[in-house]
Amino acid sequence: MVNFVADNVGFNDVNLRNLKIEYTKAETVGGSETIKYPFDSLCFVANGTGFASSGGKTWRDLSRGETVYVRKNEEFTFVSTGTDEFEIYSVIVDTYGSSTPDAVEEMFRLFKEWFPRLRLEFHGHTDNGCGDANCLAAMWGGAEVIHTSINGMGERCGNNPTEEIAVLMEVHKGIDTGLDMTKIAPACSVVSTISNIPIPANKPVMGTRPLQIESGVSLDIEYKMARNKDYTVTNIYNTFSPSVVGRLDEVHPVLGKNSGKSSIRLLLDKYNISATDEEVVKILAMVKAESYVTKSGVSEDMLLKFVKDVQINN
Question: What are all long-range contacts of 189-193, with beta carbons under 8 Å and residues at least 24 apart?
Fold first, then answer.
């Protein structure tokens, strides 16, 4: 006996026209005694003599199909295979990343209402920027399984990133995924190396830029909160600590045109350098001028040069 049989159903009007399939929707719904259509194969397997213990359908490009028709087809499969001995699942697929969260949640709510015993899964892509939100919407609608891939690897813009969905579920929603979260960063690094696809600097969870803080306002808050005798706070920026996913680097200040006096003080403290308020103001002015000229950030080496120049001249 095999564990399960998957029936991948590529069905909506666009698919049918492109494949030049002539039969009508009505013809694909019904109790054919033979495997005349792909839709009948799951019923054939389920009604066999112990060939498989579970099975289901992957509704390819369902986000652009007709939900009512899918209900009819699932009803046929559900009735034909609806026994406690045979577990049925259904994968709702947003093949081209065209769905929005409201539509995804509604689709899952409908399926859960129609087929309470059906195990629902969601497979999405990130083409329209709604990937992570669609996964959450699917869960609110009743999905029990979310398909993801490390670093979001996949066709076109990619699949929903495992690391992002894991953080959303574990940290933000308190849902136990069963993952060892500390292995996420090492896994992402290995996959990036093997696939030869660099991790973008601004990518959530694994990018370098989320840990770099330039805003003078934010760093001023950190500087003061870290020195508050009554209530100390050391991380006001990120919604989770980088160590949660196994990262070894930490949130740190960087210098640029948006820096403030506390930005300078934080880095001076790092190097155990003392400076007067007047010196800090002069150093900050040099940092901002450098950033405007180079149209980029200012390195810590350059900062130390500015400190030296200011303090020598004083």
Answer: 191/150, 191/151, 191/153, 192/151
Asked whether residue 142 carries a pLDDT value surpassing 60, the answer given is yes
CA–CA dist 163, 191 (Å, integer) = 12
How far is the CA of 242 from the CAs of 156, 273, 297, in angstroms? 28, 27, 22
Residue 223, SS3? helix
Rounded CA gap, 314 and 310, in Å?
6
Residue 55 belongs to what H/E stretch? Answer: strand 54-60
Over residues 108-120, the mean pLDDT reads 87
Is the CA virtual torsion 149, 154, 119, 99 positive or negative? positive
Closest by CA position to 188, among listed 175, 173, 203: 203
Residues 162 and 168: their CA atoms lie apart, in Å, by 10
> Closest Cα partner for 90 from 37, 147, 33?
147
pTM (whole model) above 0.85: no
Contact 146, 160 (CB under 8 A): yes
CB 197 within 8 A of CB 213: no
In angstroms, the first-to-last Cα distance of the chain is: 84
Q: What are the phi and psi torsion angles at 70 (to 5°)?
A: -60, -35
Picking from 38-47, 117-126, 163-172, 268-277, which range would have the lowest pLDDT averaged per residue?
38-47
- 249-306 tens-digit pLDDT: 988 899 999 999 999 999 999 999 999 999 999 999 999 999 999 999 999 999 999 9
